[in-house]
Structures are given as structure tokens and as C-alpha cells.
Amino acid sequence: MEKWLLWTLLLITFSRTMALTENHEEENKERQLLPTQSLYKDLHRKVFLFPASSADSYVTLSPLKNTELQNFTVCLWTYTELTRGYSVFSYATQASTNEILLFRDSVGQYSLTVGSEEVTFQVQEPSFTPINICATWASASGVAEIWVDGIPLVRKVLKQGYTLSANAMIILGQDQDSYGGGFDINQSFVGEIGNVYMWDYVVPFHEGKTDCSQANVLNWKKMKYEKMGHVIMVPQLRD
Ligand SMILES: *[C@@H]1O[C@H](CO)[C@@H](O)[C@H](O)[C@H]1NC(C)=O
Ligand SMILES: *[C@@H]1O[C@H](CO)[C@@H](O)[C@H](O)[C@H]1NC(C)=O
């Protein structure tokens, strides 16, 4: 728990320092990648509130890059009272609607699906407290990690050698059973989600410092999103 706090603090300090030291070349590259920069918002200290189960409330997130992936890390903050299963993060491509799916099966069990293959992770979850969850996967080894509040769960191996297709549809609040649709009310998220970050590489959490400002696929401080149905953006009240 303490380690996790330190991690968060480091992360904040780092993102400030990085913002100052980032060279102009990087900035120019970024501008070319983001021609419609005004649509990208800094969601720092904000979260999406999903007030009720539904099959039509969700948020789509536009990735900063639409390339194929051989490695990834995704992190989110969730705060929920749900005991049933729900989708945490749904990343679909034309090749597979479960290209990446992070799912909370039940209290104490998460599953990670990559390219339609699923592995499960057991965790002792504290009830009714926010959770910081990160998932990583590396094609070369197939190794998948899930970190809950800074603690690594028992690693699993899947889809060694696989490449995730480009042009993902990324959705919070619902599980996609088709590209951008096929939602099931009984897998919808109810509660609060924020701090969504995704990298196209495996972040070495064990090395202790994580720089969220470097998140190059999804970045909560540079986010383009679309809300559908009943979803409200509110200030984050808890860490
Ligand atoms: C994925 O990670 C491995 C190991 O770090 C690296 O060798 C490989 O180049 C990475 N693939 C891509 C597409 O970045
Ligand atoms: C959702 O779950 C409820 C209660 O278990 C069930 O009655 C209903 O048929 C389910 N709906 C769908 C779309 O699966």
C-alpha cells in the first residue's frame, strides 16, 4: 500500500519534470500525430461516473496511435460496489472483439484476454475501496502481469508470438461482443473509472518508477473521448 502511494507520488513528480524537459522535437512529433489537438483534454483529477447498469452507456477512448502491438501496459483506477462480473477495459479490433479484455469476473478474480485467449488471476481485494489496476503483456514471452494497488499477482502466459491488430475500438463501461457494440447489461460497469493510461510496451513496475506522462497509446492528461448514454464526468474524490 505504501509502495503504491510512493509510486503515485513519483509519477506526479515525474510528469511535472518531464513536461519541462521534453524536447521540441518530441513536441513537434506529437503535433503531427494530433492534428485536432483541441479535442484532447486533460482529465487530471476527473473520473467517469457510470450511475447504473445499462447496455447503452459507455465511453469510447481514441488511442494516440493506431498501430499493431506486440507489447502493452494498461492502467486504470476503478471504484465500484459491484460484486457481479464487469468489463474494466475492452479493446476490440476487426480481428478480435476481445483483442484485449480486462474483466473482473467476481470479487477476488480478474481475467485478462489477449487475442481471444483468457487467463485468470486471483487477488485479495479490499471491499468498497478504489483499486489501481495495471495489466501488461509481452508477445515474445507471452507473459502477462496484473498489478493491483502496486502488488503483482501470479503471472500467467498466453498468446506467445501474437500481434494485436491495429485500429482498436476502446470502450469503458461495456464489454464489446462485436466491434463497437454487442453490449450485455450484466457485464456493464457501475461506479467510477479514471486515470486510464496505456503504453505500447511493458512498463517495468518492479523498477519502481513509472512515468505516466510517457503513456503513448492512452494518456489521461491528453484524452480524446466520447460519452454515450448516461455517463457523467465528475471530480475524483478519492485516490
Ligand atoms: C516488444 O518488446 C520486446 C522486448 O522488450 C522488444 O524486443 C520488441 O521490439 C517489442 N516490440 C515492439 C513492436 O515494440
Ligand atoms: C441479466 O441478469 C439477470 C439476473 O440474473 C437476468 O434475469 C437477465 O436475463 C440477464 N440479462 C441478459 C441480457 O443476459
UniProtKB/TrEMBL annotation:
SUPFAM superfamilies: Concanavalin A-like lectins/glucanases. One of its GO terms (cellular component) is extracellular space. Its cofactor is Ca(2+). Its main location: secreted. GO terms for biological process: acute-phase response; innate immune response. Keywords: Calcium, Disulfide bond, Metal-binding, Secreted, Signal. GO terms for molecular function: complement component C1q complex binding; low-density lipoprotein particle binding; metal ion binding. Binds 2 calcium ions per subunit. Residues 1-19 form the signal peptide. InterPro entries: ConA-like_dom_sf (IPR013320), Pentraxin_domain (IPR051005), PTX_dom (IPR001759). It is found in: Secreted. Disulfide bonds join 75-134. Residues 44-239 form the Pentraxin (PTX) domain. Homopentamer. Pentaxin (or pentraxin) have a discoid arrangement of 5 non-covalently bound subunits. Belongs to the pentraxin family. Displays several functions associated with host defense: it promotes agglutination, bacterial capsular swelling, phagocytosis and complement fixation through its calcium-dependent binding to phosphorylcholine. Can interact with DNA and histones and may scavenge nuclear material released from damaged circulating cells. This is Pentraxin family member. It comes from Monodelphis domestica (Gray short-tailed opossum).
